[in-house]
Design goal:
CATH architecture of the largest domain: Beta Barrel
Number of strands: 45
Distance between the termini: 21 Å
CATH class of the largest domain: Mainly Beta
Shape: globular
Radius of gyration: 28 Å
Helix content: under 10%
Strand content: over 45%
């Protein structure tokens, strides 16, 4: 629609399609509460577009030099527009139900133009309104805005750090089973197999784990979990997933240096949305999901959204369910154009069984079948309940200062019992000795973030200043018990006991609480084609941890300053090279065994250079980045278990990403080269080793194509390839007589969709999609250390019948 309007405007306003007068007048006469301060006309038109929802097209020369008067109060869009233009001598024309063109005095009010074609009207056209929101959906695969990088609505092209956005359409087309799986076509991201991700989102980025408790998993720009085993985030409940790679503590406080994953929740929509889906697939997977949004009153100031699913399914591992219930209500109240309050809540129940880690030698030889259940039917369980409730308040004051205040509380309760199967290799006669592990995990978190954003001009510089404070309170109480003896299992002829193993009385768990309070200040500066960012932050953290086994109480207090600086140059042809330096930190609990001093926070430092290319008006975004990322003050443990703050890891790499929409063709491509190395450790044999689970090379490509142009109306096809290169294991594995590398693998995915509306209007909104992952049933495994290996998931197929109205 936008491309059509731009082309039509450039050829002559009189060629724009016009709706019947009755409909256009009806749209223009709807009343709204406007709050537009006096300001340059271009900015005033942008505010009018944001507050009314109409698209406004005008030539840059038309608005230049004009100042618009203030427009406040309840009135129609046409009345507000007339007041904005009252002193400018300009005219307007409603050329569609939601399209307005601003005309010079020489143009007729009915939309026709007296200017000859091909001359004056071929100047640059500015279009305001219906811009992409970094908190909302994207049509297709190419997002242009993000909120995670700068904390403000900022074009990706102007963000001097690597950003990827997984859109809602990509999630729908690829149908990932978890948040982690939705990132398999994103550069610089690696993870364990889906057997682990069905419970938790354990993700590595640029060689560092970002899912360790509160390490880097965010929801709507704020910390979500206190413990990685709280449970994974349901991808159906997300509007988009933003991935910011590299050190980024300046806006978010304690984080892994690898970056952050910001999952954006579905919120009430301006237009009615109704969707219901029924699925059936491999391993007797049955699922029903729905997504509903609409206004609750006549003027649309009160809107709701309700998203949910129920799944009853087995798993490719025998005797393992994969059941889930998810429900997420949301309510938005917008009493006027300057204010909105969104209330959100969610509840998630997961019923499955934990995928116990295995020894490297047992999976590398294939001695243990990948579908064999290694637990005890009456004992094993992973049952989790996760609850969240929060709000997001946004208000724009008359001086154009934007306030955002958000808060959320979450609580998780997980019952997690399993048989540990990585204590000793399978014996020559096929016996696996297991030991019971019984865990009861409870955690909670409260987070709040309050910020003020102001845009202003000083000389040639345009500033967007963001200042804020945030607070995060977390608690994690874990009860951990083990069995009193080993339980054998014949893996060639398994016979289960049918009863729960005996559990010992020793509680190896702990209870921990912590606080983080931070203040931050950031200035985004634009001067001509230059875009700069300077940011700084100060954090204060404290924590208390109590061991249930020995009663030892460990207190920790830290404070840390972090910062970021970056610059982008925006060429007129769409090229945007950038440079940046950024920092991260993460507190550590305990004392150094050498000195007895409290452990210092881990510190991350990243240098990054990149280049993006996004031609104006195109659905193409190419990105390239090189970086060096170092984390020091890591805690490493010697053979006796003593803690030493000697760890240092450095990661260097290259990342490439392409996202494009060319008519009926959509493309996502990614490549990452990651050289991640341990530089210092208390264990000398680790020095020089590559970080486990991190491939040196990873490549992925996904494409989908609508076949209407080929005469197959209603059909779409899609497919992807994911190559994950070999990952290293410690040299100590070689002493066991095995190859020290985990082999690389390539997986194929596929999608076929049929839109029944091709058969007639009576079928509008009805479609059927067939998704396949690991299409050719490639056998592979992943390892996060010698005793942390898991088989990858086999081929799976899911069919989805959807209806939208």
């Amino acid at each position: 629609m936008l491309a059509t309007m731009l082309m039509s405007t450039a050829l002559g306003v009189g060629m724009l399609p016009a709706l019947p007068v009755s409909r256009a007048e009806a749209e223009a006469s709807q009343t709204r509460n406007f709050n537009i301060p006096s300001q340059p006309l271009g900015r005033a038109l942008r505010a009018l577009a944001d507050q009314s929802g109409v698209q406004i097209a005008y030539k840059t020369a038309v608005a230049a030099g004009n100042t618009a008067p203030a427009v406040t109060g309840i009135m129609s869009t046409e009345q507000a527009l007339a007041r904005l233009l009252a002193t400018s001598g300009l005219r307007y024309s409603f050329t569609g139900a939601n399209t307005v063109t601003i005309l010079s005095a020489s143009a007729a009010h009915d939309g026709t133009s007296v200017a000859p074609k091909g001359t004056e009207l071929l100047e640059t056209i500015v279009v305001e309104g219906q811009r992409e929101s970094p908190w909302g959906p994207v049509d297709g695969y190419v997002a242009t805005q993000n909120a995670s990088g700068m904390g403000t609505a900022t074009p990706i092209l102007e963000t001097p750090q690597s950003v990827s956005v997984v859109t809602r359409d990509q999630i729908t087309d690829q149908k990932p089973a978890s948040l982690a799986e939705s990132l398999t076509y994103t550069p610089g991201v690696s993870m364990q197999s889906q057997s682990f991700s069905r419970m938790v989102d354990d993700v590595m980025m640029r060689g560092f784990n970002v899912a360790t408790g509160n390490g880097g998993m965010l929801r709507d720009g704020m910390k979500l979990q206190s413990n990685v085993y709280d449970g994974g985030q349901e991808p159906y409940g997300l509007e988009r997933v933003e991935v910011l790679r590299g050190a980024a503590s300046v806006l978010y406080g304690q984080l892994s240096p690898g970056g952050l994953i910001n999952a954006i929740s579905k919120r009430p929509t301006d237009k009615p949305l109704h969707e219901i889906n029924a699925e059936y697939g491999s391993y007797d997977r049955k699922q029903v999901s729905f997504d509903l949004s609409d206004a609750l009153n006549a003027d649309g100031s009160l809107r709701y959204r309700l998203t949910g699913l129920v799944r009853d399914a087995d798993n490719w591992v025998e005797q393992t369910p994969d059941n889930k219930v998810y429900i997420a209500p949301a309510l938005t109240w917008s009493p006027d154009a300057a204010t909105s309050l969104t209330l959100q809540a969610s509840y998630q129940h997961v019923n499955t069984k934990f995928s116990a880690p295995l020894l490297y030698q047992d999976v590398s030889t294939g001695r243990i079948p990948r579908d064999l259940f290694l637990g005890e039917p009456g004992f094993d369980r992973y049952v989790g309940d996760l609850f969240t409730v929060g709000y997001d308040l946004q208000h724009t004051f008359e001086n154009d200062v934007k306030l955002r205040h958000a808060a959320r509380y979450y609580q998780s309760d997980v019952k997690w019992d399993y048989m540990m199967a990585n204590l000793a290799p399978v014996t020559s006669n096929g016996t696996l000795y297991r030991l019971a592990s019984k865990r009861d995990e409870k955690s909670y978190g409260f987070t709040t973030d309050t910020s003020l954003e102001k845009s202003f001009t000083t000389g040639p510089a345009e500033h967007t200043v963001l200042a804020g404070i945030d607070y995060y309170r977390r608690g994690y109480d874990t009860l951990r018990f083990r069995g009193t003896g080993y339980v054998p299992l014949d893996i060639d002829d398994p016979v289960y006991s049918g009863s729960s193993p005996a559990i010992g009385p020793t509680n190896r768990g702990s209870d921990s609480d912590g606080n983080q309070f931070g203040v931050y200040l950031q200035d985004q500066i634009k001067i001509d084609n230059w875009a700069f960012v300077l940011g700084g932050r100060q954090d204060w953290t404290d924590s208390t941890s109590t061991s249930y086994q020995n009663g030892k109480v460990t207190d920790q207090d830290d404070q840390k300053a972090t910062g970021r600086a970056g610059v982008v140059y925006l060429f007129d042809n769409g090229l945007a090279p950038y440079l940046s330096v950024s920092q991260s930190f993460a507190p550590q609990v305990g004392a150094d065994s050498r000195t007895g001093d409290a452990l210092k926070p881990n510190e991350g430092l990243q240098y990054e250079a990149g280049l993006r290319y996004q031609p104006d008006g195109s659905n193409l975004l190419l990105s390239a980045a090189i970086y060096e990322l170092t984390q020091k003050n890591l805690v490493s443990y010697d053979a006796t278990g003593s803690a030493y703050q000697l760890g240092k890891v450095r990661s260097r790499g290259l990342e490439l990403e392409a996202r494009a929409e060319f008519g009926a063709l959509g493309i996502i491509g990614a490549y990452a080269y990651t050289d991640s190395q341990i530089l210092d450790s208390a264990n000398s044999y680790e020095i020089g080793q590559a970080v486990a689970l991190v491939p040196r090379n990873a490549v992925s490509l996904w494409a989908d194509y609508k076949l209407d142009e080929l005469g197959l109306d209603g059909f779409s096809i899609g497919g992807g390839l994911r190559y994950v290169g070999k990952t290293s294991m410690p040299d100590s594995v070689k002493t066991l007589g095995y190859d020290a590398d985990v082999p690389g693998y390539m997986l194929a995915d596929a999608m076929v969709r049929y839109d029944f509306s091709a058969l007639g209007k009576q079928y509008n909104g009805l479609d059927f999609t067939l998704n396949a992952r690991n299409l050719f049933d490639k056998k592979f495994y992943t390892c996060a250390g010698t005793d942390g290996c898991r088989y990858g998931e086999p081929a799976s197929v899911v069919g989805t019948l959807s209806y939208k109205w």
